[in-house]
Amino acid sequence: MENKTVIVVGAGAGGMMAAGRAAESDASVLLLEKTEQPGKKILISGKTRCNLTNSKELDEFMTMYGANGHFLYRAFNHYFRNELLEFLSRYGVETKTERGGRIFPVSDNAEDVVKAFKRYLADNKVQIKNGTGVDEILLGNGRVTGVRAGGKTYPAAAVILTTGGASYPATGSTGDGYRMAAEIGHTIIKTAPFGWCRWS
To answer: What is the pLDDT of residues 78-116, one digit of tens each?
Structure first.
């Protein structure tokens, strides 16, 4: 039988969304998170209120990402603010718009956003392993075959790497993803601090 397992490495917002979407597409999904809980960066975002997005139209929205933000147009043309807010509403998170077009949960509580993601994962039968840091992505015959974490091998047909950058080590963003991507042949451009998403 064909292996339909997808492993997602990193349970931030991107990882949880990727895991849920892969499961909706009929994959068996394992989400591996090296810290003790998913969504740690969500919990501190917006001073724990979780600044979800902004009400600006797409062209103006994109200016907040600086000169190189244009690469996001394709993604945002498929999934932008309305889709995100509809997703959150479906899982019980209503939102409000404040000064500068900033959008927050009505509750002002980032924990509600994490709970919404957890319900999404549970609804789609995503298996989550917290406290499981991935050491390497495994290759065989020129393709991904799984990952190794804590001395254990987890086979998979595909691996989605959503570890974030190196911006906030306390939340798990320690740069592991750069190393793992480089080890399997990707070119990593030297990173530098950049003040992006400068909402008013």
So the answer is: 999 999 999 999 999 999 999 999 999 999 999 999 999
As a whole number of angstroms, the distance between CA 98 and CA 121 comes to 29
Tens of pLDDT, residue by residue over 11-23, are 999 999 999 999 9
- Angstrom distance (rounded) from CA 7 to CA 33: 11
Q: Provide the residue type at 59 as one letter.
A: D
Contact 41, 193 (CB under 8 A): no
Three-state DSSP state, 19: helix
pLDDT at position 64 is: 86
Give the span between the Cα atoms of 166 and 176, in whole angstroms: 8
Angle between helical axes of 110-123 and 81-90 (0-180°, round to 10): 80
SS3 content of the chain, % helix, strand, coil (to 5): 35, 25, 40
- Euclidean distance between the first and the last CA atom of the chain, given in angstroms as a whole number: 53
Instruction: Determine the Cα–Cα distance for residues 47 and 164; give it in Å rounded to an integer.
Output: 19
Report which of 11, 14, 25 is spatially closest to residue 125, judged by C-alpha positions: 25
- Under-50 pLDDT residues of the chain: 1, 196-200
Which tokens belong to 35?
A: 């810290």
Q: Tell the residue number behind the tokens 């077009």, with chain if given.
A: 101
Instruction: Calculate the alpha carbon distances from 198 to 48, 73, 109, 160 in Å.
Output: 18, 18, 21, 28
